[in-house]
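One thing: can you check what follows?
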Amino acid sequence: MTTHTTLDRNAGIAVWRQIMEALKAEIVSGAFEKGSRLPPESELAARFGVNRHTVRRAIAALTSEGILRADQGRGTFVASAPLSYPIGPRTRFSEIVSGQDRAPDGRLIGSAVEEADAFLANQLSVPLGTLLIRVESLRVADGIPMIVATLWFEQARVPNFVADYAETGSITTALNRAGIEDYNRKETRITAELVEARDAQQLGISLGQPVMVVESVNLDTDGRPLQYTRGRVAADRMQLVVSGGE
């Protein structure tokens, strides 16, 4: 007996996108495990009360995100679930991705030296006009773009950061080379916006799609601000998980 799922046709959200989100939620919850086969299009069409073309569009969107894969003649299979990304005192991209059996990588896509304006001076607790290193980074998991981020550091503290990050692809390793053995997250602020053209190109998403904006400040072991980051997250590929307070 086919289970029926009711869609809200007055929600102002395209039906195919509602189906996409419903399937994605089930994949995240474990209802469909990695490597498992999705039900046939005809069965999904009956479940959602739509035609097969609408189901096919939802599946195509999930396939373009790398969540599903189509095997000719065999069906559609779960390639990977959206990345679960915990936000906490020790948020480390490489550790989080590796812990979910995916291959992490960091790519340097730009850098510059600039003077701290009032906002950045406040975030990093440095005098106005202090020289900062600005780094543009793309973080990927299994080759799929996840986060495009802009990071700022006081140049005097990490003078070789750009070269070290370009070589290693790891922020933690690059900081270690500067003598900074550990760091912790002070705070995280999460908002949303429509993706900008340059970020859309880096993330491989369409203009008009939303991205999560994650702003954070990291402290060194002495409690001194070390890094301010403004990351733009592909909302369809990652779920941010914020732990409850103590």
User: Anything to note?
Assistant: The chain is about 30% helix and 35% strand.
